[in-house]
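Quick sanity check, Aldose 1-epimerase family protein:
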Amino acid sequence: MSSNDTVPSRLEIARHAGETSAYGGVRSVVLDDGAGRGIRVLEFRTGGGLYFEVLVDRAMDIGVAELDGITVGWRSPTGFRHPGLHEHADEEGLSWLRSMSGLVVTAGLDHTLFGGDVDATHYRYPPKQTVRHGLHGRVANIPARLVGYGEDWVAEDHCVLWAEGEVVQATNFGEHLVLRRRIEADLGGTEIRLTDTVINAGFDPTPHMFLYHVNVGWPFLDEGTRFVADIERTLWQTDSVAEQGADHLVFHQPQPGFVEQVYEHHLAADPDGRHRVGLVNPALGRYFEVDVDATAFPCFFEWLNLREGAWAVGLEPSTHHVAGDAAAREDGSMIWLEHGEERRYASVFRFGRTG
């Protein structure tokens, strides 16, 4: 066995099997039925109990995610819907909700949070004085160019499962932003490393907003599951919090007609400059943690969707406060990227056992 006495070494796997995938690996498949037909998927199996799927045609977001066969990533009623079915401007900009499912749904690249009209005169195209955004922007429904994937032995006892892709959000007389995404997991491991780089490939100054909608569902989310975070104070909450009063620290059973409760929490960073938030299910002896750079993602939202039939809790690191696009432009907090300028986001999603 390898030095940690749990994961086979490269030699040991070779002695027992013809390829690394006998223990763990990455496999490319294509969904072939229903609303997801045609979506390219990369299946990651670490051999350490972690299984997850990367939706290549959904901006390389993470769909299914399981630890020891227990579903962690939210499976919403929409399923994993092909981006060709997406209509960005439908339902007054709320059509994003028709393809919202899975562990990670990315929001951006030039807009997050609720939609509306904002100034577009910086693009210098007279017919386009404003641009209208829908909920959480466009990026989640753009297919990626798959750069590569596979299993790399970086040492005799250390193999990295990986995938890389590039998502281009562009239009004529508007934004030209590129998301370069790399996803890694160690053979035998129980964490996902997500590294995103957003670049302005265009020549106009372009707004940039970014958010991860990290969604956890049943059966990991269950009666008694706890939300764990170092909250210094809560900056904002929806009116539904006072109206319903559902606990946002310990969760109970799904409720009929529940109205979403959303909170913006100001988190304390740890000594490494990271924000760490998570959920713990004591009955299952399992936990899930989101670990992000506090400088890159200074804001954080907690989303409670405790409604029957769509039960989920969302952990949302964000570049901007809940007031959104127009407010960020007014108060000067909007990020403007010049040509060639980039922002990098290095995040970790940890799955673990408490027992």
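Posting the structure with no commentary besides this: The chain has a mean pLDDT of 96.
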